[in-house]
Write a structure and sequence with these properties.
The complex is a heterodimer of chains A (about 140) and B (about 140). With about 140 residues, chain A is of the alpha+beta class. Chain A has four helices and five strands. Chain A has a single domain, classed as Tetrahydropterin Synthase, Chain A (2-Layer Sandwich), CATH 3.30.479. Classes of the chains: A alpha+beta (about 140), B alpha+beta (about 140).
């Protein structure tokens, strides 16, 4: 089994707000991230797939295919978007880095046929990242 | 759904690698430059990984304010700009980054209850890093 990781970057805006909480509760829970006008990050995404090395190609996965799926399913949808307003999953879910990692996994997993998705890692900043392994 | 969150922190500290159980010569052979008597220092980068179900209400594994507050108060404050050899945990133990990693893991494990601690990683330099996942870890 060999693990292969492909990195990509995207920039997006978001804010944290739970409509079931009062303004005060939202403010207390989310602090500056609750500003309704939003703020943004340069996110770094790392997608790790695993599989046996194909004896003919020497590949775990055709990198071009992986890159195309990442571009189509994730980057085209998220890059330079306001996550809360433009990405359907975040109409009802708070776009935290945790949920972003889960949503990216859910977008990629069904489309990656050539190799098995192992991990989605999303860096919100260099000092904060989330890993999702598809665990329930 | 379960996610794993990693937060990085930094502190700077000095240390000297020297074991009282070895002769001067053995210490020099074992620790090389790190055995120089007056010590030296590093900018340590700590990665603390916690995990748990993502809370529907908050979208979070745990509130970063809580994690940052704990790690700053109990780890960064404890080690930043200190000589590690003079701290109680390193009176009897050599302050290698392996042992520092275990000490920090134990501090977080004992005191932070808002999420499960997966691991502590320390980068001593850009070229060296160490990870501890607890006694039963991988």
């Amino acid at each position: 089994m060999v693990y292969l990781t492909r990195r990509a970057e995207f920039s997006a805006a978001h804010y944290y707000h739970n409509p079931e909480l009062t303004s005060d509760e939202n403010q207390r829970l989310f602090g500056k991230c609750n500003n309704p006008n939003g703020h943004g990050h340069n996110y770094t995404l790392e997608v790790t797939v695993k599989g046996a090395v194909d004896p003919t190609s020497g590949f775990v996965v055709d990198l071009k295919q992986l890159k195309d799926v990442m571009s189509r399913e994730v980057l085209d949808a998220l890059d330079h978007r306001f996550l809360n307003k433009e990405v359907p999953e975040f109409f009802s879910k708070i776009p935290t880095t945790e949920n972003l990692a889960i949503v990216i996994w859910q977008r990629l997993a069904p489309k990656l046929t050539a190799a098995q998705l192992h991990r989605v890692r999303v860096y919100e900043t260099a000092d904060l990242f989330v890993d999702f392994y598809g665990e329930a | 759904m379960k996610a794993h969150l990693t937060r990085r922190y930094m502190f700077s500290a000095s240390h000297r690698l020297h074991s009282d159980e070895m002769s001067e010569e053995e210490n020099r052979v074992t620790y090389g430059k790190c055995n120089n008597p007056y010590g030296h220092g590093h900018n340590y980068v700590i990665g603390v990984t916690v995990s748990g179900p993502v809370d529907d209400r908050t979208g979070m594994v745990c509130d970063l304010v809580d994690l940052d507050g704990f790690v700053h108060a109990h780890v960064v404050e404890r080690y930043d700009h200190q000589n590690l050899n003079l701290l109680p945990e390193f009176r009897k133990q050599v302050p290698t980054t392996e042992n520092l990693c275990i000490s920090i893991y134990e501090i977080v494990k004992r005191g932070f209850s808002k999420a499960h601690l997966d691991k502590v990683r320390i980068e001593e330099t850009m070229m060296n890093s160490f990870e501890y996942l607890g006694e039963n870890g991988r």
